[in-house]
């Protein structure tokens, strides 16, 4: 079995943080972001459609809003992760509520794992992520070197 090789990438001091929440979790995400507004203000924020509009209004901070998650917003954020234009994902999802776009959600979480970015799926893990000393500094981490992986397969 061939192993994937890795390269080192560096996250900038100013992180690009994607914020996503299912309908039943939007209030939790809004409250969490309000509590962490001061820290979030130092970073670039992006979100799916409805969540982005609510966050921008509540926080009075710029939020780059995609379209609504079920209409493709989750996939837009996933594409940005694959393009290495998202550094962290905070995704408050409802484990008890089936979503019509579950395949998109699974794909979003998968691409975040593929590109080795930090993911918080609830308030507690998001607190840990934002309290890390790595948040406010450059950080080196490993990502798969897919160019060599693809060359082996062709």
From TrEMBL:
Catalytic activity: dihydroxyacetone phosphate = methylglyoxal + phosphate
Active site: 74
E.C. number: 4.2.3.3
Binding-site positions, substrate: 22, 26, 48-51, 68-69, 101
Residue span, MGS-like domain: 9-154
InterPro entries: Methylgl_synth, Methylglyoxal_synth_AS, MGS-like_dom, MGS-like_dom_sf
MF annotations from Gene Ontology: methylglyoxal synthase activity
Domain of life: Bacteria
GO BP annotations, alphabetical order: methylglyoxal biosynthetic process
UniProt cross-references to PROSITE patterns, sorted A to Z: METHYLGLYOXAL_SYNTH, MGS
Membrane-spanning segments: none
SMART domains: MGS (SM00851)
Entry keyword set: Lyase
SUPFAM superfamilies noted in UniProt: Methylglyoxal synthase-like
GO cellular component entries: cytosol
HAMAP family documented for this protein: Methylglyoxal_synth (MF_00549)
Family: Belongs to the methylglyoxal synthase family.
Function: Catalyzes the formation of methylglyoxal from dihydroxyacetone phosphate.
Entry protein name: Methylglyoxal synthase
Organism: Pseudomonas segetis
Gene (UniProt): mgsA
